[in-house]
Amino acid sequence: MNESPLLPRLVRFRDAPFYLGMDRNRFNAEVRPQLTEIPIGTQGIAFDRLELDAWVEQYKSRNGRPAQQKGMLTWDEREHPVLSTGVVPGTSTNASEVAEFAKALAKATSQKRRST
């Protein structure tokens, strides 16, 4: 029988920063104010492991970046490198596309606006 280790529900203050993978000062500044402190004995303080996990999920949803897939650009790199030809990105060089865009623009701007 393969038994996984049992994680305690309460994480002592001295272990909480390590559990989250950060130093104590950052934990005290960013995480601790958002958590419920649980007194243990006369001097001990602990935090609920599930509350620590919930903080990580919230932090990840606000600050996380998608993983880079093999052969693809990272999320914050430009989709197209700067061209040395002097062509400005976003400008069409195809005459038929320019004409179609002009027609669509004229049609969109000539229609009466609907009142809401």
Can you tell me about this structure?
It is a single chain. The protein is an alpha+beta fold and 116 residues long. It has a domain at 8-64. It is 38% helix and 9% strand. The protein is built from 4 helices and 3 strands; from the N terminus they run E-H-H-E-E-H-H. The chain has helices at 16-20, 24-31, 49-63, 95-110; strands at residues 10-12, 38-40, 44-48. It has a 3-stranded antiparallel sheet with strand order 1-3-2. A hairpin with a 3-residue loop joins strand 2 and strand 3. The longest helix has 16 residues, at 95-110. The protein is elongated.
Helix-strand blueprint:
Elements: E1 10-12, H1 16-20, H2 24-31, E2 38-40, E3 44-48, H3 49-63, H4 95-110
Antiparallel strand pairs: 1-3, 2-3
